[in-house]
Design goal:
By secondary structure, the chain is α/β, with parallel strands linked by helices. It has five helices and six strands; from the N terminus they run ββββααβααβα. Helices cover 30% and strands 13% of the residues. The chain has a four-stranded mixed beta sheet with strand order 3-2-1-4, with no helix packed on it. The chain has a two-stranded parallel ribbon with strand order 5-6. β2 and β3 form a beta hairpin. The radius of gyration is 16 Å and the shape is globular. It starts with 6 loop residues before the first strand and ends in a 7-residue tail after the last helix. The model has no long low-confidence stretch (mean pLDDT 93).
């Protein structure tokens, strides 16, 4: 019998406490404690730290500048279009950014810039699926579910550890 329960745990991070939620085997949600998309555990979820040991370790390594890619099972909810956007976000290299227009072109929907923005904003797994790497065409930071300070922090962290500016 398959376990359909959702488990959750919290971890401290430089961008505030993070909610981690999912099944025994896959991460479904990372939630910020503040910002426009702040979220907490939902009714019926069961607190249990064990399923998130690997996630917690990898996020800690990321925040320390020692991890540039995540390697964990993910199970985000979303429409076919939203999931195509999330898959494209996973292609953005560490320390780099793309515009909403770039993402729309990459998924073959050049006129869907707003829809890409909405899908990006609905990302249930920020940080791991790096929606923070998407910026406006003019270079502006635009919105972020965890708040612009968190987005600024994540981009700064990645730029300082990306090696893109070494020797300049």
């Amino acid at each position: 019998m398959r376990d359909l329960k959702t488990y959750y745990s919290y971890m401290d991070s430089p961008v505030g406490p993070l909610l981690l939620a999912g099944s025994r085997t896959a991460l479904k949600v990372i939630g910020f404690s503040s910002g426009s998309k702040a979220r907490g555990a939902e009714a019926g979820w069961q607190q249990w730290d064990e399923p998130f040991t690997k996630t917690r370790k990898q996020l800690t390594e990321y925040f320390a500048g020692r991890r540039k890619q995540f390697d964990m099972p993910l199970d985000p909810d979303g429409t076919k279009f939203q999931l195509s956007v999330l898959n494209q976000l996973l292609q953005i290299p560490y320390g780099e950014t793309r515009s909403y227009k770039d993402i729309a072109q990459a998924i073959g929907s050049v006129n869907a810039v707003r829809a890409v923005g909405n899908a990006n904003g609905s990302n249930p797994l920020p940080i791991v699926i790096p929606c923070h790497r998407v910026i406006g065409s003019d270079g502006s930071l635009t919105g972020f579910g965890g708040g612009l300070d968190a987005k600024r922090y994540l981009l700064g962290l990645e730029m300082s550890h990306s090696g893109l500016f070494e020797g300049v």
